[in-house]
Specification:
The protein is mainly β and 107 residues long. It has strands at residues 9-18, 23-33, 43-53, 58-61, 65-69, 72-76, 78-82, 87-91, 95-98. Strands 1, 2, 3, 4, 5, 6, 7, 8 and 9 form a nine-stranded antiparallel β-sheet that branches. The radius of gyration is 15 Å and the shape is globular.
């Protein structure tokens, strides 16, 4: 939840285990990110395996990562995600599919 108590992110994993005092290992991780409504995520992140470091708030995956929004899907070979700033970095090869551009003006 954010400072106002509004749901901002939800982590669901098939397996979660504490690797150390500061690190957690995840398998089958699904992250939902909420901006507009707590009922429907604005973005989802799917990771086969990931590690979360509590000291840096960084989630990293050396495995395929998929980020899905309402109008796009991005797949990369690796992911770095800062849970404080919500900034992410996908490492390649990276593929982006845009599913709906809406109506575009004529050239």
């Amino acid at each position: 939840k954010d400072k106002a108590g509004k749901l901002s992110m939800r982590f669901n994993a098939e397996i979660a285990e504490r690797a150390s005092e500061t690190a957690f290992n995840f398998k089958g991780l699904h992250i939902e990110i909420f901006d507009k409504s707590p009922d429907k995520p604005d973005m989802e992140v799917f990771l086969n395996q990931a590690v979360f470091d509590r000291t840096t708030s960084m989630l990293t995956s050396k495995d395929q990562a998929k980020i899905k929004g309402e109008q796009y899907e991005i797949i990369g070979s690796q992911l770095e995600f800062d849970s404080k700033t919500r900034a992410s970095r996908l490492l390649g090869p990276v593929t982006m599919t845009i599913t709906d551009l809406g109506e575009q003006p004529a050239p």
